[in-house]
Design brief:
Blueprint lengths: L47 E7 L9 H12 L3 E8 L3 H13 L5 E5 L10 H6 L4 E2 L1 H15 L9 E5 L2 E6 L3 H23 L1 H7 L11 H4 L8
Parallel strand pairs: 1-2, 1-3, 3-6
Antiparallel strand pairs: 4-5, 5-6
């Protein structure tokens, strides 16, 4: 693959009622949470991950990016429930991500590969059709951070994320450097929080209790359009 986010890859604010900036008390960026609700009490301490390598040229024995994801999550105290390798084919990628996202023993899915701009890079197209919610901030932050390392070449990366069947799904480029950046700087710091939020209503229904989605942080629960490819 020729993922253009190639780091050497072969395939490509508590505001007052109105502060000096004119923000109101209910500004969506006010994460001081004065409503008395703890929006982190749903955070998952241990997360079970499904790792998917998208490549038609590699094997699980020759997959440094997939290996890094496994070691990074396990070292952080999480577990890898399943690891698979699929070819650069739309149906294979979509079917695998959909199946893993629906498994009861998998809390999140991370893919590596297929996010570039060559004809066989189809991961974003395959998974976006599954998203019930998109997480545009993931791709935005990933490209901002990668710009610090590779400059303007980051525009060729289409790293993306969203929620499939109450399961967060993150799609990273295929290079090991890109996987390190995405996993260490973005996914690992937020995975427990996102898993807790994404599965919140499901847990409440299974437990017979009422969902407290009405108390959710607007910044957390916001469903926004896909970022431009």
């Amino acid at each position: 693959m020729s993922d253009a986010h190639d780091h050497g890859e072969e395939d490509a604010h508590g505001h007052s009622e109105e502060d000096a900036h004119g923000h109101s008390e209910e500004d969506a960026h006010d994460h001081g949470h004065t409503d008395g609700h703890d929006h982190h009490h749903h955070d998952a301490d241990t997360v079970a991950i499904g790792v998917v390598t998208v490549s038609s040229s590699r094997s699980l024995d020759d997959d440094p990016s997939g290996e890094y994801l496994v070691s990074a999550f396990e070292e952080a105290g999480h577990e890898v429930a399943v690891r698979e390798l699929v070819p650069d084919e739309y149906d294979s990628v979509q079917g695998t991500v959909d199946r893993l996202a629906r498994r009861k023993d998998t809390d999140a899915v991370v893919t590596t590969g297929g996010t570039g701009v060559t004809p066989d890079d189809v991961t974003p197209e395959a998974v976006k059709g599954l998203f019930s919610k998109t997480l545009p901030g993931f791709g935005e932050l990933f490209r901002r951070l990668s710009h610090e390392e590779i400059g303007t070449r980051t525009i060729g990366s289409r790293a993306t994320a969203g929620v499939v069947s109450a399961t967060p799904v993150f799609c990273l480029p295929g290079s090991e450097n890109a996987v390190r950046l995405g996993a260490d700087e973005i996914i690992l710091p937020e995975i427990g929080h996102l898993v807790g939020l994404a599965g919140r209503g499901v847990e409440d229904e299974e437990g017979g209790g009422e969902s407290d989605d009405a108390d959710a942080d607007p910044g957390d629960a916001d469903a926004t359009p896909d970022d431009a490819e």
